[in-house]
Design a protein that fits this description.
By secondary structure, the protein is α+β, with helices and mostly antiparallel strands. The protein contains five helices and six strands, in the order αββαααβββαβ. The chain has one domain: Beta-Lactamase (2-Layer Sandwich), CATH 3.30.450.20.
Length: 147
């Protein structure tokens, strides 16, 4: 690993937010320590694999639709809630464009959403998302080929 990339990896691993960076082909370029912790996965083996493997097979069409909307500029940012095995998280996904406006990838931020969810529950503005991470809602193994 080259020195600047090594430093960037150390910075990302020191953040208290989960960060996943993908290229234009959904290949994971970075999957920081906190993302691994929040999603119950070993982050190292995820790097270099398809983002689609982080989702159950049935979720692929929705994930690809969202990424294609980002690629085209139709969707500027995705914001949503994730309930992964009982851990509530806020998810933000942003497209990345180069200096010519060409889509080159996306990055995801995962934030612990417990306090925000509790606040919104008190206001009657929060609906608990469906739990994922178990059974047919589990991420696939990095050894399972994505379509």
């Amino acid at each position: 690993m080259n020195p600047p990339l090594k430093v960037l990896t150390k910075v990302l691993d020191s953040l208290h937010v989960g960060v996943v960076v993908i290229d234009k082909n959904q290949k994971i370029l970075s999957f920081n320590r906190m993302a691994g912790e929040m999603l119950g996965q070993d982050s190292g083996p995820r790097v270099g694999t398809s983002l689609l493997l982080c989702h159950p097979e049935r979720a692929e069409p929705g994930v690809m639709k969202m990424l294609n909307q980002m690629k085209s500029g139709e969707l500027k940012q995705y914001q949503g809630w994730v309930n992964f095995m009982g851990r509530i998280m806020c998810e933000y996904i942003n497209p990345i464009f180069d200096e010519t406006g060409k889509y080159v990838g996306a990055f995801m931020e995962l934030h612990d959403g417990k306090e925000k969810a509790e606040y919104l529950k008190m206001k009657g503005e929060f609906k608990e998302p469906t739990m994922h991470g178990l059974g047919d809602s589990s991420p696939r193994s990095v050894k399972t080929p994505a379509k």
